[in-house]
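Team,

Forwarding the record for the chain on the shared tracking sheet. I've put the sequence and predicted structure together so nobody has to dig through attachments.
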Amino acid sequence: MQVPAPFEYERATSVEHAVALLDRLGDEARIIAGGHSLLPMMKLRLAAPEYLIDINDLVDELQYVTITDDEVRIGALARHRQLLEHEGLAQVFPIFRDAEKVIADPVVRNKGTLGGSLCQADPSEDLSAVCDTLEASCVIRGVDGERVVSMHDFHQGPYQTAVADNEMLTEVRFPVRANSSSAYHKVERRAGDWAGASVGAAVTMYGAEPGATIADGRVGLCAVGPNTTNIGPISDALRGQAPSEELYAAVGQIAADNCSPSTDTRGTADYKRHLAKELTIRSLRKAVARATGQES
């Protein structure tokens, strides 16, 4: 029987209240929202917090998508379904809809949150790759105020983040750039499964017309090893180049060379490297097509 260890339960009434509880209860307290990562770990006794702090009532403070001309801000309590169905977000960052379509199942998407996905820091988590590809920054709040860290610095290793025991993630911010678009591709054994490999790509073009060269680009890999969401040689190879199948193939090879997958039930290491290359090619091709008006 899978039964969690005993714990005490607190229901936060505001972000300030949640942070105060975290500060008072220390490292034995955990935030819970959707609970789709934390609760299974508690049932298996892989996690045994003494206190759970429920933030589901903090909709007004933490559940939003705000879009301006130069920035998108998403609250940490935004649900997967909200991100999937938000038309404005899909127009600015189509990578979100690409990824959310293949995350888990409707039950998980109805309750799971952006903040929970990022704070789990699983190397196979789709939205971590999405956020790093889009050069997101994370707003972390504690009793002494807020601080902002880059997505690259937010994840400090598998299942480790920059959020201290007495802090919580409250918001994720994304810069909006003209003549830009993005895409995401994933291979999984069955619908809703963790990825065998997945890749997100984002590009900014020198102009929105077909034939424009690439001003900048990023690729984030998922499920093919740690530290694969900010690969410098990929961006270096894309800058100033004209889009072509040869360029995509060369960048795909860089992606394959810079990942470190492990053989497991989802495939061999060589197979996953092949996926990293192929999915990089597909994601770049689609991102460029979207940015230059050749695909919606």
